[in-house]
Amino acid sequence: MYPLRRNRRLRTSEAIRSLVRETVITPNDFIVPLFVVEGKGIREEIPSMPNYYRQSLDLLAAEVKTLWSMGLKSVLLFVKVPDNLKDNAGTEAFNADGLMQHAIKTVKNACPEMLVMTDVALDPYSSYGHDGIVGNGEILNDATNKALAKMGLSHAQAGADILAPSDMMDGRIYEMRTVLEEEGFHNTGIMSYSAKYASSFYGPFRDALDSAPADIQNVPKDKKTYQMDFANRDEAVKETLMDIEEGADIVMVKPGLCYLDIVRDIRDAVDVPVAVYQVSGEYAMLKAAAANGWLDHDAVMLEQITAIKRAGAHMIASYFAKDVVRLLG
Ligand code: PBG
């Protein structure tokens, strides 16, 4: 009891604060999302994501070497697909000679030890901007699963270490795991976006990849029939436990900051590592506020990342990864 116990004693200096600190951020915490485009020598800033770029394969090679030298050892690849290669079935997604397949090889060639994760969903390849195949005004679950399994296999064949399905179809983890096992890819892992919400924070990402749902008749205008309702909490645990049963090695909550209650629920409920995706809109919000001088960029960034880890994340996919590691020194 006071005055014998005074909590402020443990806050009197940076030395004691660092001694009793419960959550510490290191480069090992991060997965770095990377956007890849066709072409040569291309490094385009994404307008709604200041200081974040789409890069062509030649520059991707240099980028991953830089990341590795900073202690950043995992990347998550996304590709921007030209309109003429998009169709409803996402056919280009399993082209062995496609941009993603080349990107995987480029990273592995440049930096063999880099852990390569790949986004598995049809939206960048879909003429309708949906994560699955559209038919009769809906997203066809089982047909999409077959396509995702094929897409995942093609990434594994190109050398991906971990597949990251971000589509939220039912049963897609089982379908993908089954195909990987049949084809001998026992060591290719699956990081499932298990609790992925229908969030408006994905806007800048969809700008980056030109992958927003199209405004076409008889095509759903949003992703609410597959991504989760942001009002739901218990459902996230249900989704996640099912993905683990189906063979997910790592589970993910997405977005990050507005969903830290979900992160803690899942961390307490599962026995596999938990990832959190701090998404594009979260990045854009801080960049915009900082550009206006309204928030201290670095201080808020560190507070946010620390909060995500404190909530229970074992790893964080974040566009701030390089900024944080530079700040840590
Ligand atoms: C693709 C995918 C999305 C994101 C990651 N994978 C967009 C979406 O589901 O619409 C969002 C990432 C971000 O906003 O940073 N399915």
From TrEMBL:
What Pfam families does UniProt report for this protein, alphabetically? ALAD (PF00490)
Pathway-wise, it operates in: Porphyrin-containing compound metabolism; protoporphyrin-IX biosynthesis; coproporphyrinogen-III from 5-aminolevulinate: step 1/4
Instruction: Name the catalysed reactions.
Output: 2 5-aminolevulinate = porphobilinogen + 2 H2O + H(+)
Gene Ontology terms, MF aspect: porphobilinogen synthase activity
Q: What does the record give as the organism's lineage?
A: Bacteria, Pseudomonadati, Bacteroidota, Flavobacteriia, Flavobacteriales
EC number in record: 4.2.1.24
Q: Write the protein's name.
A: Delta-aminolevulinic acid dehydratase
- The signal sequence is none
Which PANTHER family does the entry mention?
A: DELTA-AMINOLEVULINIC ACID DEHYDRATASE (PTHR11458)
Keyword line: Heme biosynthesis, Lyase, Porphyrin biosynthesis
Give the matching InterPro entries: ALAD, ALAD_AS, Aldolase_TIM
Which organism is this entry from?
Answer: Dokdonia ponticola
